[in-house]
Fold these 4 entries.
Entry 1:
Amino acid sequence: MTTVKIGIIGGSGLYKMDALKDTREVVLETPFGSPSDALIVGTLEGTPVAFLARHGRNHQFLPTELPYRANIHAMKQLGVEYIISASAVGSLKEEVKPLDLVVPDQFIDRTKTRPSTFFGEGIVAHIAFGDPVCPELARILGESIESLHLPDVTLHRGGTYICMEGPAFSTKAESNLYRSWDATIIGMTNLTEAKLAREAEIAYATLALVTDYDCWHPDHDHVTVEMVIEYLHRNAISAQKVIQETVRRLAENPPVSIAHSALKYAILTPLEHAPAATKEKLALLLKKYL
Ligand SMILES: CSC[C@H]1O[C@H](OP(=O)(O)O)[C@H](O)[C@@H]1O
Ligand SMILES: Nc1ncnc2[nH]cnc12
């Protein structure tokens, strides 16, 4: 199988990447089930990348139903070491406006009912997650955005992404609670992916595309799906340019990430005493440590 070091996960409204060349569909199975869709493997300015539509190309999966583990495992199978996630988010701050871009550096977990670890079944691991986003990848993403001088695009480097369960959007009381926590943006998917990517020793960073003011802003309509998709379409071209530039810089100078050795001090169970079936299930993640 071709080794691909850079993965791109496209969220709501970003179901394909037009700039990808020489594409082929790769259908993968994992010990955690099937990914959301086939991965599209191709090249961006000569660099091999894998693209996955997070919700499937026809947007069939709720945030709760997404096969997050299979998606990250499939990326790992291809050899991916860096994941750039492009996602729609609501803004929780006046100064973060629809069409702005945010590269968050923190998450708050408000999810309730989704598996968010590869471990268990006899193998216990606790990854460090104080810095949930790879600082190096986030830096490259931020520098790429700045270098493009995109007209009418304001970048916010850093900020906290609230990851809620959904699928219903927040109540005003919730939205105001998150504002009182000084959170910056809200979405339903990226924290779960970031945790699993860290367990899989893949660097992860988010390109958050602001589509709405959620429901707290007195002068703006409450978020709707129509609003999210309309705003995404309006900055889809910028998003693709940013991803392309980030891939170019990453390929030129791939950084060492804290994520790449995340399991070194995380596994508690002596692997020689671990159940053989679990070791087999986790072989791709554990092979460096067996
Ligand atoms: C279509 S509105 C809600 C939906 O949009 C965001 O998706 P993604 O993170 O995949 O871009 C949000 O997290 C919800 O899943
Ligand atoms: N306001 C919002 N809440 C949760 N997810 C979103 N995705 C885009 N806008 C959102």
Note: The chain has a mean pLDDT of 96.
Entry 2:
Amino acid sequence: MRIHVAADHAGFELKAALLEHLRAAGHEVTDHGAAEYDAQDDYPPVCFAAGEAVVADPGSLGVVIGGSGNGEQIAANKVIGVRAALAWNTDTAQLARQHNDANVVAIGARQHSVDQAIELVDAFLAEPFSQDPRHQRRIDLMSAYEASRS
Ligand SMILES: O=C(CO)[C@H](O)[C@H](O)COP(=O)(O)O
């Protein structure tokens, strides 16, 4: 799978561990930054970059990481075509794919151990979209709204 990953300073350490884990598992992973640790850096630019890469690369998925994951989810969702979900347990990670066909998952690195956070990402990546018509209908409503505003 092709995976686009980004993190600010709060997610920098988790990003390094996640890149290693995903590459060892055979995924094709692109690191969209931050390239180095800077306690003053801002999460929106790297989240925009990862989101844009996911939209430009159909079939790929994204991971955006910060302290809570909230701002990273918000930033990624500003990219047209991104459906970013904050995953905070296995169920929300899986439901993001099953029900929402989320193409980006947001993770709060300060909310989980590294192992727990990697489990959330793995659960997200492994779960397919259900293809259920009711879920597709709701996604289509959001896509139509997005298209009408752009
Ligand atoms: O989670 C985040 C945004 O939702 C950021 O990672 C967090 O706000 C960074 O905080 P600080 O600048 O205090 O380290």
Note: Residues 61 and 125 are 8 Å apart (CA to CA).
Entry 3:
Amino acid sequence: MSSLLQGVNLYLIGMMGAGKTTVGQLLAKHLGYGFLDTDSVITQSAGRSINQLFAEEGEAAFRQLESDVLAQVCAYTRLTIATGGGIILRTENWSYLHHGLVVWLDVPVELLYTRLAEDTTRPLLQDADPQGKLRSLLEQRTPLYSQADLKITVREEQTPEDIANRVIEAIPSVLKPQVSQ
Ligand SMILES: Nc1ncnc2c1ncn2[C@@H]1O[C@H](COP(=O)(O)OP(=O)(O)O)[C@@H](O)[C@H]1O
Ligand SMILES: O=C(O)C1=C[C@@H](OP(=O)(O)O)[C@@H](O)[C@H](O)C1
Ligand SMILES: [Mg+2]
């Protein structure tokens, strides 16, 4: 599989709670790739949490940091990159994402909500109706997530390892092997 990918980066996109960070680490291990999470790069370099950045700088400033990180990351190869759920919002980000293979982890809202019900690290879900918020974000973002090269539909019983395996199995369907002359 690594030889078929030829070092091309894998970008995981999808909603908060879809499992991008969790599955991305497993995928990197399977592929012999490095792993990066855009949220972690941002929080490490800013020395502040995502909650702090949203509260102190605002979402627009966070989105700029996210674009800056993506622009830097795409200079490297052999990486699996877990993105933040909103990375798809800026058109300019797609010019970076399309340098690699983009995989959408599509997870039903009910499952996202179950996973994140106790979570306090996603500022956009600090809402009176977090499930409704997830539903409306997914509705707004679905046309953008749909621009991925690969869509992996996730069911409740599937473990992160199952999902990583499904991604690996699906890669050949979107990559043509190079014919040697
Ligand atoms: N396939 C899965 N099955 C059960 N729980 C999962 C699965 N994938 C992720 N999780 C859990 O859901 C939460 C959100 O996962 P995370 O990887 O942080 O998602 P994202 O980065 O897409 O927001 C974490 O608590 C994680 O352990
Ligand atoms: O969907 C979003 O807009 C966001 C998703 C988060 O990342 P995860 O998708 O890893 O939770 C994080 O970037 C921030 O809270 C905003
Ligand atoms: Mg994440």
Note: Residues 130-145 form the longest helix (16 residues).
Entry 4:
Amino acid sequence: MVTGLVGPNGAGKSTLLRLLAGIDSPDAGDVTFDGTPLHALAPSARARRVAHLPQSAQAQWPLSGRDVVSLGRLPHGAGFDRLSEADVQAVARAMSRTGTTAFAGRRLDHLSAGERARLLLARALATEADVLLVDEPTAALDPAYQLEAMTALRGEADRGVAVAVALHDLALAARFCDRLILLAGGKVLRHGAAAQVLTPALLEAAYGVAFELVVLGDRRLPVPIARSGPTGDER
Ligand SMILES: Nc1ncnc2c1ncn2[C@@H]1O[C@H](COP(=O)(O)OP(=O)(O)OP(=O)(O)O)[C@@H](O)[C@H]1O
């Protein structure tokens, strides 16, 4: 299942992902994993089961692409000079699924922002966690790699991984997510299938922008037309 988190800047998408990853703790309520409170899991066990890729990770490390992706195996006890056969295979699979195999020998800090973003997505995939939390993975990517990244996330979901992804691109959200959660002002406005969530009225309420729906095959994709509500601080 791919769950998309959509909503305007400051809606709470990243905050929700950080809570789900156990990076932040909720002021109220609890996050549970298979019935166990997340904070009751040892950090290493949590890291093996829940992978989190933060927004626009600005990593500029002088590491090879392969070493960067290998970092995703740390929760499994791996080190750069201590990779099991399972680690090596997981790293190779993640690089293949993100189209980053060609960067295996390139230094991360010598790559473009989009190329780095793809390697960092590969690092998250390499963990082979049960839950994959990804914050705006397509922001730095050109259209071809946006599709490739979303296809990679869909592939993970088809293998049984629970994927939650924050997205600003509503067309990608409509096409690749099984269900969407529309957030605004820290609250859920609606959750459900794309057709139920991405209505012009709800989107206008969330973003202060008038939307029209464009028909693509059996889907209706929202296109922003013009601002209709308050801006920035007024929102
Ligand atoms: N570390 C923090 N300390 C205090 N407030 C924060 C912190 N991080 C985020 N916030 C606030 O929490 C709210 C939600 O922020 P969050 O980053 O979750 O939004 P978002 O939906 O991911 O936005 P964007 O689309 O801009 O990335 C915002 O008002 C933000 O200013």
Note: The pocket of adenosine-5'-triphosphate is lined by residues 7, 9-15, 55 (CB under 6 Å).
